[in-house]
Amino acid sequence: MTSDGSHRTEPSTTAGERDMLDGWLDYHRATLAWKCSGLTEDQLRSVPLAPSGLSLMGLVRHMAEVERYWFREIALGADLPDLYSTAEDRDGDFHFTGADSWADSEQVWRTEVELAREAARGRSLDAVSDAASHHRGEVFSLRWIYTHMIEEYARHNGHADLLREHIDGATGE
């Protein structure tokens, strides 16, 4: 159990490949949610590690973009607009205004996580993307996408650890 009373399910140490990948990805998703829990809007928006522009709200918005891109745009070949980034501001997920809120950002992320789960459900880990779905013409197996997403969350959860510690002193794995 985490400090906020929510649960992170430890991934199985003996599951089959698909269950193992799902377990690790869900574990890292839950870790990011935990790192953001119990904070105020101002704390979630804060950028405490100058000169870095990272914030917990920015990380959640970034992961919403990443979930959307890899599971729906690449794996399924869907033609979807970016959620926050633009041609003029490729890091738009980390740049927000007073009109942007934590509640909206968290809801978009949770929605993209559910849509990613739906996109992967029932598909073989060997299924590959259409080369036309990636700007460099590469193809990716669903297995590669899972592995990349676990890496992406693990890296950004490390950032979230540091941010959270600077915001309120909370630490934890």
Task: Describe the secondary-structure layout.
Layout: H1 17-36, H2 41-45, H3 56-74, H4 102-120, H5 142-168
Helix pairs in contact: 1-5, 3-4, 3-5
> Quaternary state, please?
single chain
CATH domain fold name: Four Helix Bundle (Hemerythrin (Met), subunit A)
Structural class: mainly alpha
Supply the CATH superfamily name. dinb family like domain
Strand percent estimate: under 5%
E-strand count? 0
List low-confidence stretches: 1-5
Q: Level of helix content?
A: 40-55%
Distance between the termini: 12 Å
Q: How many helices? A: 5
Q: How many domains make up the 3D coordinates?
A: 1
- The whole-number mean of residue pLDDT values reads 93
Gross geometry: globular
Main beta sheet: none
What is the radius of gyration computed over CA atoms, rounded to a whole number of angstroms?
A: 16 Å
Short overview:
With 173 residues, this protein is an all-alpha fold.
What does this structure look like?
The chain has 173 residues and is mostly helical. The protein has a single domain, classed as Four Helix Bundle (Hemerythrin (Met), subunit A), CATH 1.20.120.450. Helix content is 52%, strand content 0%. The chain contains 5 helices and no strands. It has helices at residues 17-36, 41-45, 56-74, 102-120, 142-168. Helix 1 runs parallel beside helix 5. The longest helix is centred in the last third of the chain and has 27 residues, at 142-168.
